[in-house]
Amino acid sequence: MGKSSAWMGQSFGESLRDFIVKMECGEVLVYHFIQAKYGLLALRKRRLKAARIHDLNDPFEYLAPDLSSPDVRRAFLNLKNMHDEEYGLLCFSRSWENPVMWSHYAERHRGLCLGLEIDDENTLSVEYVDDRLSVEPLFTRELEDRANAMKRTLGAKFSHWSYEQEVRLFVNLDVPDSKDGHYYVDFSHQLELKEVVIGIEAHQHAKQIRRTLMDNQPRVGIFQANAALTRFEVERVQLF
């Protein structure tokens, strides 16, 4: 099992590298929830902070398979540590309307939600499952099946997280910011800001956001979020 574990880690890394560099057409609009002070900074500097794998809020990240085997458990823990040094990720949702997302990730509706257009072929949609995954598909002889099993492991989470409708974009960790040591991904045609939704309790930031975007991104739509009157959802109205 030791040799198999090493082979699995190598193949897993190769699969992820191929996944990151794959470039196809097909844009999709996704949403990033963020605290107000960091959102305003992101708009001004035109970039998003990449999350580190060990900083994610789910202790089962990278550990979705059945880890009852000590060798398999060791292999996945080593893999998680290795990838934490090499890769980061940007986490998005497919929807801005869920009030729970605003409460958990946008400062209890005092933050922002950034709508960004990204290449859908470069993303990984999270699969929500009730049971731990089998490791058997990771050892198949078919390369394509093995690669698909590895990617599934990257994006499997317990079904109770399904309200997030999460989409992930893995990125290489290149050069950290010289001031704070974090890693960032600049806005570009592959990560293009399209919308800013201001939280229900964050209306005071509207003018500042307008001034910031007028200087460098005047075509970005700015919206104010409101609590829907007939549904447990967030609605929005366009301000600019």
Strands, helices and their partners?
Blueprint: H1 2-21, E1 27-34, H2 36-45, E2 47-49, E3 51-52, H3 70-86, E4 87-93, H4 99-105, E5 112-119, E6 124-125, E7 127-129, H5 143-154, E8 156-158, E9 166-172, E10 184-186, E11 191-198, H6 206-216, E12 221-227, E13 234-238
Parallel strand pairs: 7-8, 11-12
Antiparallel strand pairs: 1-5, 2-10, 3-4, 4-9, 5-11, 6-9, 12-13
Helix pairs in contact: 1-3
Tell me roughly what share of residues is in helical segments.
25-40%
What's the rounded overall pLDDT mean? 91
Number of domain units: 1
| SSE class | alpha+beta
Largest sheet: 5 strands, mixed
Describe the overall structure.
- The protein is of the alpha+beta class and 240 residues long.
- The protein has one domain (2-238).
- It has helices at 2-21, 36-45, 70-86, 99-105, 143-154, 206-216; strands spanning 27-34, 47-49, 51-52, 87-93, 112-119, 124-125, 127-129, 156-158, 166-172, 184-186, 191-198, 221-227, 234-238.
- Helix 1 (2-21) runs parallel beside helix 3.
- The protein is globular, with a radius of gyration of 19 Å.
- It starts with a helix and ends with a strand.
